[in-house]
Amino acid sequence: MKFGICFILVLVLLACSTLGHPTPTAKCVLQHYMCRYNNSPPIARLRHHDQTMEAWNTCNQECADKKAEYIYYGYFYCYCYATCKEIVKIHESANGNLWPIGNDPDNICSN
Q1: Spatial distance between the Cα atoms of 19 and 44, rounded to a whole number of angstroms
Q2: 8, 47, 73, 76: which has the highest count of C-beta atoms within 10 A?
């Protein structure tokens, strides 16, 4: 009985440790970067009021539904991009992350 409970607890801990990672296929996460607006305007902008997993999951799902290739998740907003031709560094207090959803067609991970 104790072994079964411990086994289930380990599975729950492993599952929880994977939460918060951008996507299973993300090649990289660029902290304090976003796509330059002039070259790659966002195809969607979503406002969220808190930094919860629910807000993150909503952003991730909305961007995937809109066929976005890149996500920028900031403190108050989430941006979905179809392309990301040029990345720009943002102020560290902005506390945002940029990552490709799938294959990284614009090769931001190699920058």
Answers
A1: 24
A2: 73
